[in-house]
Specification:
Number of helices: 8
Strand content: under 5%
Order of helices and strands: HHHHHHHH
Helix content: over 70%
Shape: globular
Radius of gyration: 19 Å
Structural class: mainly alpha
Largest sheet: none
Number of domains: 1
Length: about 140
């Protein structure tokens, strides 16, 4: 029943789309980095501003409903860069905006991203402990 209901997709075409869209997002990041580095003359500040800009653009396009349409077509190409994280925070918030700012937007904002943050933090701590043990043994 699942096989009948799910649309057939061409794996090669899907992978090419994901690669191209992800590459375009990363190329945009590089263009922004070059521009910010030329303006600010500080590599660390330029990197920070690139992240801020990409997150803001992804949040803005998610609020307009454009990012989800792109993500349906590009798949992992939009999820892998930092833009996917911004989308995962803004999308649930936009879905529940009719319930108000506190109980709708505020409460639902971290529905998807919350577990990612928790398990990402726990994983990094475990990795750090293992790394310290391995370095102490060497």
């Amino acid at each position: 029943m699942y096989e009948k209901a799910s649309p057939n997709s061409n794996l090669l075409v899907d992978c090419l789309w994901a690669f191209c869209v992800g590459g375009l997002i990363c190329a945009l990041g590089q263009v922004l980095f070059n521009a910010y580095q030329g303006i600010l003359h500080d590599e660390d500040a330029a990197r920070a501003w690139v992240s801020i800009t990409l997150i803001a653009l992804a949040a803005f396009f998610t609020a307009l409903g454009l990012f989800d349409n792109l993500a349906k077509r590009a798949g992992a190409g939009t999820i892998v860069p930092i833009t996917g994280f911004a989308n995962s925070i803004v999308a649930p918030a936009m879905e529940f905006k009719s319930e108000g700012l506190v109980l709708g937007v505020g409460a639902k904002m971290f529905v998807v991203a919350g577990p990612v943050l928790v398990y990402g933090t726990i994983s990094s701590v475990i990795y750090g402990v293992i790394l310290c043990i391995v370095q102490a043994m060497a």
